[in-house]
Amino acid sequence: METKAFQKIYTKVIQITKATCSLRANGIGYEELAMVNGRLAQVVKIIGDVVTLQVFGGTEGIPTNAEVVFMGKPPVLKVSDDLAGRFFNAFGTPIDGGPEVEGEEREIGGPSVNPVRRKQPSELIATGIAGIDLNNTLVTGQKIPFFADPDQPFNQVMAMVAMRAKADKIILGGMGLTNDDYLFYKNVFENAGALDRIICFVNTTENPPVERLLVPDMALTAAEYFAVDKKQSVLVLLTDMTLYADALSIVSNRMDQIPSKDSMPGSLYSDLAKIYEKAVQFPDGGSITIIAVTTLSSGDITHAIPDNTGYITEGQLFLRKDSDIGKVIVDPFRSLSRLKQLVIGDKTRKDHPQVMNTAIRLYADAALAKTKLENGFDLTDYDERTLKFGKEYSDKLLAIDVNIDIDMMLDTAWGLFAKYFSKAEVAIRSEFMDKYWKGE
Amino acid sequence: MKKEGKQTQGKIAGIIANLVTVEVDGPVSQNEICYIKLADIDLMAEVIKVFEKKVFVQVFESTRGLKVGMDVEFTSAMLEVTLGPGILSRNYDGLQHDLDRMEGVFLKRGDYTQALDYEKLWEYTPLANVGDTVLAGDWLGEVIENVMPHKIMVPFKFEGKFTVKEITAAGQFNVNEVIAVLTDSKNNEVKVTMTQTWPVKIPIKTFKNKPRPFKLLETGVRTIDTMNPIVEGGTGFIPGPFGSGKTVLQHALSKQAEADIVIVAACGERANEVVEIFTEFPELDDPRTGRKLMERTTIIANTSNMPVAAREASVYTAMTIAEYYRSMGLKALLLADSTSRWAQALREMSNRMEELPGQDAFPMDLPAIISNFYSRAGYVYLNNGQTGSITFIGTVSPAGGNLKEPVTESTKKAARCFYALSQQRADSKRYPAVDPIDSYSKYLEYPELQEYLKKNISETWIDKVLDAKNYLLRSKESSEQINILGDDGVPISYHLSFWRGEVIDFVILQQDAFDEIDKRTSLERQKFLLEKVLDICKIDFKFESFDEVNPYFKRIINVLKQMNYSEYESDKFNNYLTELSTIIDERK
Ligand SMILES: Nc1ncnc2c1ncn2[C@@H]1O[C@H](COP(=O)(O)OP(=O)(O)OP(=O)(O)O)[C@@H](O)[C@H]1O
Ligand SMILES: [Mg+2]
Q1: Which residues contact ligand 1 via a Cβ below 6 A?
Q2: How far is the CA of B249 from the centre of ligand 1 (A)?
Q3: Does A115 contact B at CB distance below 8 Å?
């Protein structure tokens, strides 16, 4: 972003912290951008004539006589169809060697959609993964994160889901992405011949952390352009939102705000909600679906970041390694898609809800039997059967390498029910039993 | 809204997020509304702290682009709602602006649409007579709003006694036309229209008295009506970790509870959940009126991406509207999801003002704020002897699902029903996940309600409910013993005791909110079900070995569940009943 000739240059910085610097200036707009010795910064506080700037690149080496120039506008992204197929950094500057994108300038982090202009989501997203389609069905316009420990293959699963979803545009917002993961995504997109549908805004671990704060808003401004102006279905991938929240806490702690739980800012809920709530279904067909990643530290979902996320998103997908079958599964107990009831049994076969719930209930019985076994108790015949069921259910349906259609998933489940249980133990509404029961 | 005379003016002196400091040239009051002049738009803000000439205001909008020195105009009015016919079936934002009247896909700052339709003509009938002595809140006339009788009242702001001097004859009028002329004790004339305003932070207290509530409020949700009933004019709250079913339960209440009108305050939660109401309610038949559910519902939506300061306002706006309808002698049900977001909004502001923080950085006076709010609910006798009520149920979203946090603890002191949603129940899909042992309804201990239940359900009802609770408790204890000692390490009676509780759990507590039949159970059917289940619990079934117990009870549960899915007393239902007796006879 270039500075204009007539702009006033300030050269007296009066305070510097790790993420911010302050100076005296007048007539400055709140959230306006500035350049501090060539580094992009944004106004986060004005008290009288003292303006505090958050410096995205960090303040290392910023001198008290740094040149500060205000740009008279908040951060913007130039939007047009030319965004498609391009890779940008957190500021929206191309990193793929291509030219700047020309188009209409839009402020990022803009206003919310009027709730009465939304439509209730109702388009199923089929991924082929039964742990998702059968148990936690996704819908366009939904926002849902993967909750996973850092060693889980969430980037692989997310890329797989993105490629199978029939989205018009896929926008990747990478925050603190390792260079390897960035190249992984690039590769997947290229190999799938999907580059013309992709747009990436990437902050890698090599870039300063505070820059990440711009990534979701950049990605979502581009998404809104395609969803609203072009009525397209847009899938936005945000990884890793934990690193985004970490950057928030860096800034707020530097601004002497009283931290709340886990040294996160008290506004964490609102900050995250502003991003996730950009997910939307419009009546005219345009939509924004957000699939995100929130990494956990050793599975702790009570930490402020996953906790606040869970309260905002429409469910969560938990990845876990199942040691019995040696594969990664979508954990049916802790995963949930809140919007699934809008489509299951309606856009899918009528027996879907009951089959899903019954299978999970029986899988829970298997978990109980397993605990019994581990505690050295004798198992009943029912316990033995649930254990066998649990293992096969995990392998044939929960594992992330499953790739079948939903009818097939349901048939597989009915097959397992009849193989291991009696009708009374399965206890599904009789109309479905009569139709689908595969035993005698 | 604005009064005559010189208005106080100010200029912006500082900005931190949505907290703006303003230097003023005249008097201001706490909670006064002001407008910040940003080019061609006015941004609404509320005074939340005054320090000499420096006034702290919370802006109900994004503050992007505001500059030091910009003009601020004070209104000398507090945040007010506009009351009058036409509130029902509206979708408002937290400040009562009509969302449907706003233009464009995105919310625009400063797009403040009017709350009522000023053109619409209402079929008006007078209720008062010339010469009547009236007080604030007394009924002067009536219009029919959708299907509800909507009373036109003496404005709540009127102080003292008035005499009706003129009253307009029946006819069609818009809300701004004068329908009565009153005179005060000094013979000053005042005109009354169908609309009035009221500051949301101040309770409307025009009723005669507020007795302890005593009437059951039927909700059709078994774990509430049977186990821990809520009453007309009662208060309750639903704390629970994310995904445990708070919103689903509240939506069920909004659709099914025996209330005249329903006000839903979506406070800092998901927009898609509000859209669900927008989409479903206009389609849903209302068994009470034969019309559509939306006709007696008002939605106040401040979803999580809407301005934070308006979140706090949204619950007050909703409560004030409920009080307005209560004054008409109606039963209002007010639902707020989630009150934790409102508390968080208070926390954000308090932190920005650098106030001394209380526990978890919430403001020190949080308990007082919450209990003041809950105390606005209640059952009242109006001056004319009629009754009205506000039943208030809020959800709480405790951080980390841990109930030992300030919002849950403060709310526990204020609300009388506690519907604790348990993560464990939600994980095992035992919905609604209301924990039967931790949850309670204080009303069950009220002799007034006990009397009512005895008269309206049965003489022995309370004993039966306590019996059921007892079975659940014993079941839990037995299950713990079995887990420690193993299936064959305990007497068979432990298994029996465990499964008795499971029958109650699966058949009474668990209820499928998405099944057409199961979602709502009439009181009559709940009585039948509890009696049936308790009969089964009382039988001393004979078993040879413990591993016969589980399959046998599963059969019983299965048949009872099938019954729950069948129309009450239908052939299908009766067939299951017969099947049940056959199963029971096997082991008697
Ligand atoms: N009574 C019920 N019957 C069937 N499913 C239910 C029931 N209650 C909840 N669920 C399931 O649980 C999911 C989450 O419920 P809900 O949205 O009410 O949770 P919540 O407590 O409001 O969560 P949050 O705090 O995140 O808003 C629902 O989408 C649904 O799948
Ligand atoms: Mg909810």
Answers
A1: A 310-311, 336, 338, 341; B 240, 242-248, 269, 397, 431-432, 512-514
A2: 8
A3: yes
Count of structural domains within chain B: 4
A9 CA to centre of ligand 1 in angstroms? 55
Q: Which of B401, B456, B404, B447 is closest to B424 using CA atoms?
A: B401
Calpha distance B116→B303 (Å, rounded): 22
pLDDT in tens, A237-255: 999 999 999 999 888 776 6
pLDDT of residue A152: 92
B64 and B127 housed in the same domain: no
| Per-residue pLDDT reduced to its tens digit, B370-395 | 999 999 999 999 999 999 999 999 99
Domain residue limits at B164:
122-199
What average pLDDT score do residues B569-585 get? 95
Cβ(A437)–Cβ(B567) below 8 Å: no
Give the nearest chain B residue to A283 (CA atoms): B105
Closest CA to A337 of A321, A356, A320, A361: A356
Q: Is the pLDDT of residue B167 over 80?
A: yes
B238 and B302 in a common domain: yes
Q: What is the ipTM of this complex?
A: 0.91
Stretch A160-186: mean pLDDT: 93
In a shared domain, residues B227 and B251: yes
* A203 pLDDT higher than 70: yes
B7 pLDDT higher than 90: no
What CATH topology corresponds to A76-107+140-313?
A: Rossmann fold (3.40.50)
Task: Specify the domain boundaries for CATH 3.40.50.12240 within chain A.
Answer: 76-107+140-313
Tokens encoding A34: 């500035």
CB contact, 8 Å: A373 with chain B? no
Q: d(Cα B368, Cα B365) in Å, to the nearest integer?
A: 5
pLDDT at A6 over 80: no
Answer whether A40's CB lies under 8 Å from A32's CB.
no
Phi first, then psi, for residue B579 (nearest 5°) are: -60, -40
For residue B356, pLDDT over 90 is answered with no
Neighbours of ion ligand 2 (CB under 5 A): B 246-247
pLDDT(B20) > 60: yes
Cβ distance B243 to A29 less than 8 Å, yes or no, reads: no
> Which DSSP string corresponds to B32-85?
EEEEEEETTEEEEEEEEEEETTEEEEEESS--TT-BTT-EEEEEEEESEEEEST
| Integer Cα distance of B578 and B447 in angstroms | 38
Cα-to-centroid distance, B337 and ligand 2 (Å): 7
> Hey, which residues 167-196 in chain A have their CB within 8 Å of chain B?
none
CATH code (residue B481): 1.10.1140.10
For B566, the closest chain A residue by CA position comes to A429
Amino acid A176: pLDDT: 94
Q: What is the pLDDT confidence band of residue A1, given thresholds at 50, 70 and 90? A: very low
Looking at CATH, the fold of the domain delimited by A9-70 is given as Elongation Factor Tu (Ef-tu); domain 3 (2.40.30)
Q: What whole-number distance in Å separates Cα of residue B415 and Cα of residue B377?
A: 10
A-chain residue closest to B563, CA distance: A429
pLDDT score at A254: 66
Q: Which amino acid is at A258?
A: I
Q: Are residues B144 and B277 in the same domain?
A: no
- Ligand nearest to the CA of residue A310, numbered in listed order: 1
In chain A, CATH 2.40.30.20 sits at: 9-70
Determine contact: B516 vs chain A, CB below 8 A: no
Q: What is the pTM of this model?
A: 0.93
Q: What is the CATH number of the domain that holds B245?
A: 3.40.50.300
Cβ contact (<8 Å) for A111 and B91? no
What's the token pair of residue B376? 């606005």
The answer, for A433 touching chain B at a CB cutoff of 8 Å, is no
Which of the residue ranges A5-19, A115-129, A418-432, B376-390 would you say has the lowest mean pLDDT? A5-19
Residue B114 is assigned to a structural domain of this protein: no
